Amino acid sequence: xxxxTNKTANSKSxxxxxxxxxDPIHYGHLxxxxxxxxxxxxxxxxxxxxxxxxxxxxxxxxxxxxxxxxKLAIKNNPLFSIDTRELKRKTPSYTVETLLSFRQQIGxxxxxxxxxxxxxxxxxxxxxxxxxxxxxxxxLVCARPGYSTYFSTPSMQQWLKNxxxxxxxxxxxxxxxxxYLTDTPLLNISATEIRERKRDRKSxxxxxxxxxxxxxxxxxxxxxxx
Length: 226
Ligand code: ATP
Prior knowledge:
Helices cover 42% and strands 12% of the residues. By secondary structure, the protein is of the alpha/beta class. A 6-stranded parallel beta sheet has the order 3-2-1-4-5-6. Adenosine-5'-triphosphate (ATP) is lined by residues 20-23, 28-29, 32, 116-117, 119-120, 142, 144, 187, 189-192.
C-alpha cells in the first residue's frame, strides 16, 4: 500500500529543469528558483548549462569553469543537481532538442517543467522551434526586475493567455502545456553585471555565492571582458 502511494506520488512529481549559460551562476539564478520550488512544490531542480547558446554572445568562461562554478554554488544545497547533456553536444543548445531527450528518458506522462526568467519568456519566439516547447513541458517563469509582464505583440500575449494557469496544482495534473508566472523575489542581478564589475575591479560580494567569487578571483576570470 505504502509502495503504491509512493509510486503514485513519484509519477505526479514534477521534473524541473533550469537551463542557462551561467557565466557565472549567481543569486539571481539561485534564489528565485528556490522560492519557486517552495511555491510549486518541486523537490529537485536540474541545472542545464548550455554549451553553445544559440541566440546570444558566446560565454567568457570555458565549459569546465562554468561547470566548476555551478558545482561550488550548489554544494550543500540538495534542491539542485546538474545535467551535462548540453555540454556534451558540439552543436548549439536548442532547448527543444534537450526536452526531447528528457522525454525519451522519462516518457510522455510525467510532468516536466522548464524554468526561465521573465526576459527569456519575452524573447521565446526567437528560440528554435519555440512553438513545440509546450508540447514537451510546462514553462515556469521567474519574475525579473526591469522586464514587462506583457508581450509587445497581441499574438504572443494571446499565446500566453491560451496556456497560462494560475493554480500550481494543475502543473502536476498534466505532463506539459501550461505556463505559470510566479511572483518570486525580484533580484536585479545578471551575469553581465558580474562580468562588468569584475572588469572594473568592483566588488561582487552581494550578488553571488562566496565560493563562486573565490573561484573567479583564483582563476582571474572576467578581468578583461569588454
Ligand atoms: P547574461 O547577463 O550573461 O545574459 P543572465 O544573468 O541573464 O546572463 P543566464 O545564464 O543567461 O543569466 O540565464 C539563465 C536563466 O536564468 C534565464 O532564463 C534567465 O531569464 C534567468 N535569470 C537570470 N538572472 C535572473 C534574475 N536576476 N531573475 C530571474 N531570472 C533570471
